[in-house]
Fold this sequence. Notes:
two-stranded parallel ribbon, single chain, alpha/beta, binds NADP nicotinamide-adenine-dinucleotide phosphate, 12 strands, 38% helix, six-stranded parallel sheet
Amino acid sequence: MSATNLRVLLTGSRGQLGQALQACVPAGVELIALGRDQLDLADADACRRSVRELRPDWVLNAGAYTAVDRAEGEAELAHAVNAGAPAAFAAALAEAGGRLLQVSTDFVFDGSQGSPYRPEQPLAPLGVYGASKAEGERLTAAALPAERLCLLRTSWVYGPVGHNFCLTMLRLHAQRAASGEALSVVADQVGCPTATHTLAAACWAAIARGLNGTLHWSDAGAASWYDFAVAIGELGEAAGLLQAAAAVKPITTAAYPTPARRPAYSLLECGTSREALGLEGQHWRRTLAEVLARLPAPDASR
Ligand SMILES: NC(=O)c1ccc[n+]([C@@H]2O[C@H](COP(=O)([O-])OP(=O)(O)OC[C@H]3O[C@@H](n4cnc5c(N)ncnc54)[C@H](OP(=O)(O)O)[C@@H]3O)[C@@H](O)[C@H]2O)c1
């Protein structure tokens, strides 16, 4: 893929998606990657200034407040980062020229319809995090002409770095297999895991193709968190990352209360977006194996 002479301002450069994006920058992209210490997304003036001063062709907003449960008690900060920052980028881009790729989430849906969500469906977030991301979508659409805005929703993001379910489960599998205890994991929330390397490729394809509108990108298939945890154990063992996988016990959401409510079924319908992006979706078990292959083998001396 190539993108001729595009200047791209990337936010959230040290997040899991931010790092994956930097690992596969297409030829022809001049990347300005900013972490929290260079640009505070809670500071809308600083976001506007960065666009005026750096004059990017695209802002790729991969930075976000992603702590779903903590957001319930930090609504103001979550809204500043997830709605205020994209709104500020959009307003500044509307004046200065340039486009926005805003990354969003399956948590903008309430998960009650029981079939995959299409990009154009109305939003109904359940918690503060989802509401703040939905507000980011609404405000960017209000500030920027439609042909200069691309909203890309994704789900259950994980990769070889950062904080995510896969890395947590690998650690817990190792601990519980050693102690003989089972792992209890929620089996009645269904979605689709998405590896950061496929999501990064989708973001770069959207930019290279100059896409606009709302896109959905997740890996292919469907899973519950329980299915994902079982696969992490099986494939982690096969990859030599675990001596043994722990037993995994399916439990209900009601048995594992969390501060934020989560959608029960938040699968994203990705067919039309995959065509627009020119990318095929790979089954999530396959991309999971690819992520696990990127992890270092455990130190046998410890
Ligand atoms: N993770 C998921 O399961 C998931 C699911 C669906 C959609 N998404 C969306 O995918 C995108 C990428 O998420 P991710 O998984 O890569 O998240 P992540 O690993 O949590 O990374 C988010 C990045 O944003 C940065 N950030 C947070 N607050 C900031 C602030 N005030 N100023 C500057 N930077 C700030 C963080 O900085 P620090 O590194 O300094 O904390 C971090 O580098 C986000 O838009 C997210 O909403 C994620």
